[in-house]
Specification:
Strand order of the largest sheet: 1-2-3-5-8-10-11-12-13-14
Organism: Phanerochaete carnosa (strain HHB-10118-sp) (White-rot fungus)
Protein name: F-box domain-containing protein
Number of strands: 14
Number of helices: 13
Radius of gyration: 24 Å
Strand content: 15-25%
Number of domains: 1
Structural class: alpha/beta
Order of helices and strands: HHHEHHEHHEEEEEHEEHEHEHEHHEE
Shape: globular
Length: 369
Amino acid sequence: MELSLGDMRLYNELVDMVIDHLHDDKASLVACSLTSRMWRNSSQYHLLDSITLLGVTSERGLEAFLAQAQQSSRIRHYVRELRIYGEGSWFGKYNAAELRQLCFGPKSLHSLAQMPALRRLFLYDLLWDSRRDGPSGLPLIRRVGICWVLEKLVLQHVTSSRFQDPGQIHHGVYAQDILDILSFFSEIKVLCFDTPRFEVDGCEASPPHVEDNFLQLQFPPRLRISSLIADPDALDNIRSSMAYNMLDRVCRFNDLHSFRVRIKPGDIEAVSHFVSMRAHSIRHYQLDMSAHLALARYGKHTGIVDTIYSHIFQAQRRRSRPSAYPRVPTSKPSSSARPATRLTASGNTSSSRSLSCPTRCGASLSAPT
């Protein structure tokens, strides 16, 4: 019996509904993909949703994946989440030439930008080298034609290849290398920034020269970030301040609405300055002060919260202050008003108590004690 065009359309929709219920059952999806060509397309839509890669040059690494993506348009259009894990520990295992091949470079990131469905990118323990691809790779950085929008970008322990030189015993990342990665994007909904040993180029210089080197950094001109989760690891207050100043300049547009940070000893001044610069747009704060609470007792950490909260309160007072010019009445309902600011401080404590600090602007503060 031959099916009409309408019957085939209904049949396809029923197949999609059945396979959609199996989205988290990999074995069943593999069996369905072997049934027919139509079932294969619907099954691979879920099978290829999230891909995990091990390394860059290994058999299950990034380069092998990109080679398959060039041959299969289905991979380019179905992969929506990509997780790339580094090779592990590099110390003493490879020479300089082999180490350069293990790095993640501009051409690889540019190839990922050509995948239209990719929306979530996770980079773990990778080596980044802006000069890995030679002169042909440098023009790809800060290229105007690239407009890559991501729902989530995770940079966790991404290390600059220059830290792998002989005599370097710590993992670390340079500010310009992070900025080179971010220059490929036009919008990031959620940015997770967790770096080991943050450094400005010229790490051996004295603090005044470090600040001069910071002024020479090249920032992405068009990046918009909605939510920021930050945990930079700096050796001193100067580098901590440089890390948050870099994040402040990266979030130059007033689109940052959520800020989550793990505050370590020496970061309080840098975080307070960041909050004072971005409090006019941020609506949700989450502060992890476990490092401070491990040393403080009997509520002595509340001054840390008060310092940051004062910036939020002052910014909200400026925002709620009546204008000197009369406002033009609008027909928008009151429900369209922006929500109240929420500040949550957390830490590893045996008991907690909610401290309510009502203000004219409706902001609330909760902190464990």
